[in-house]
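hi! just following up on the protien thing from before. the input was this:
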Amino acid sequence: MQNYRIAVLKGDGIGPEIVEQAQRVLDCTAKKFEFTVAYTTALLGGCAIDATGTALPQETIDTCKASDAVLLGAVGGPKWDVLPGNQRPETGLLGIRKALGLFANLRPAVIFEPLRGASPIRPDIIGSSLDIMVVRELTGGIYFGERGTKQVDGVEAAYDTEMYSVPEIERIARVGFDMARKRNGRLCSVDKANVLDSSRLWRKTVTRIGEEEYPDVALSHMYVDNCAMQLVRNPGQFDVIVTSNLFGDILSDEASMISGSIGMLASASLGAENPGMYEPIHGSAPDIAGQGIANPLATILSVAMMLRYSLNQPQAASAIEAAVDAALRQARTPDLKEEGLKTVSCEEMGTLVCELL
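and the predicted 3d structure came back as:
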């Protein structure tokens, strides 16, 4: 029987609540599909700062590297906002991505049929279905570039630097092309090449990779501002989107709202060698932490992505996705409540998904 080692980083806010339900669903899935899971818990983010004085202890890095996959809840909260920027919980998240070499972030935006009415987009715009994959570069760009504050002409100023090398662009482009090849054969590369030098290099490199290595994939280019508009005007035109760290962060959140709730969107962060990391795209929601009303479905769907991309258990992944779809037809957490359907707690939603597996 196959055994998998999972590093669990519960994080802050609602993180522990939603991760607990995701683990319950993974345990139920393991029993049904006859594999076993062993968990090792480690600290990341605000809880790590409180316990060790740093957002990313070395022990956490070691634990993650020794695992087959990493499950993360969420990090951050107002409690730590008084800290300098380089000491806040979010630095732990950036740090673990860098330490594990997780350069590709996959963020699917899928609308479940029971949530069609929850989408802010008109049904005629959504069409028969919606299934977009946003491939975001994760360890380069403005989030990792040179930054600082200084005095300019006697006033305080701040700067952040966007920089990409050709190898960084090549490797994320290949992830996008490979994903498009497995799906519907269409890749849209998003940049701001009419203004930014980094985007001009991005576009030139992606175009070359497409011509040399992926002639069977239809490549298009789009400016990021136009893409933001097109996602709400005609989302069905997109199959796979590949873009930079900053643009991907923004566009994937926008795409998530088309699905009805940011509480429904999972993500996978993958690298070349180390284990992948799986997490919901939403934040730690400290305003509802401890109330038992958080939506665990994005974290549960992140477990499905883990099973598909890191653990080679595609049937188990599909079973979880089907169970989530079935659960949404019976009950909702408060963020998705709908007349005629039972409103349930975070734990009750986890129980329902387990029962429907």
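The mean pLDDT is 95.
The first helix runs from residue 15 to 33.
cheers
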